[in-house]
Amino acid sequence: MDPTVTGTADDGAVATSRDGAILRLTLERPAQRNSLSHAMIDELVAILTSAASDDSLRAVHIRGGGSDFCAGADWVATNADGRRPRTGDLTRRIPHTANRLVELVHTIQLPVVCTVRGWAVGLGCNLALAADFAVAADDAVLWEPFIGRGFSPDSGSTWLLPRLVGLARARRMLLLGEKVDGTEAFAWGLIHRAVPEPDVDAASDELLDRLASGPTVAIGLAKQAIQYGQHATLPQAMNQELYGVELSCRTADFKEGLAAFRNKRPPEFQGR
């Protein structure tokens, strides 16, 4: 299917296409390393909000057009006119834009895969870290440059990084602004996989095909339980798991999984 493109040349665009049950989103602003304009962020929020209730979808793929993933929010364009924003502008606007985007990627009950090549900076880095799986080129660069630009970290970086790589490494990225390449990011446990740049698309597609052929409801509930467990006690986490088991045991995919086990064959899940 031909991709649908929204936005203007100056604002960038988000190209969307369906590949079976996989929703593919491509950030199209390569001249600015796919830095996200307000229009692109709003469009991503709208697309993912819609995808969350689309029962025909089984996975989401986010990638950058050209040689980079995403250079973060376009702060240069935001401040280009030199006007001082109203007091409280960020606290009113960001929860519904950049923060909402990261939250959606992290919590949507569909598996999300980000393909990372080139630069993944600031919001772009956090977008990849919020995904369930990030497949990166071994020479990709993940960078949290906030302190070096004179302001404190945002878009979930102070929550995501300590949980993924621990406090010591999080401080290196957030307080010292150290860049991490794909190989090191994989060694740290920051991303799912690092491969040579020519192999990034194939590795991502292999993973997406595997996820899109899985038991979609159970995957979504497992994703929810993992997130809940990050701030729960063990008894609370196990109680949350019980609700997931109760729901997933009522799906057609659960019945198929049992039948496949009994008959010693691979399951053919339908995402229902």
Task: Give the key terms.
272 residues, alpha/beta, 2-enoyl-CoA Hydratase, Chain A, domain 1, Lyase 2-enoyl-coa Hydratase, Chain  A, domain 2, 2 domains, seven-stranded mixed sheet, three-stranded mixed sheet, 10 strands, 44% helix, globular
Question: What does this entry look like structurally?
Answer:
- By secondary structure, this protein is α/β, with parallel strands linked by helices.
- It has two domains: 13-213, 2-enoyl-CoA Hydratase, Chain A, domain 1; 216-263, Lyase 2-enoyl-coa Hydratase, Chain  A, domain 2.
- The chain is built from eleven helices and ten strands.
- A seven-stranded mixed beta sheet has the order 1-2-3-4-5-7-10, with helices on both faces. The protein has a three-stranded mixed beta sheet with strand order 6-8-9.
- α1 (38-51) runs parallel beside α4 (98-107), α4 (98-107) runs parallel beside α5 and α5 crosses α6 (157-174).
- Residues 1-9 have low confidence and may be disordered.
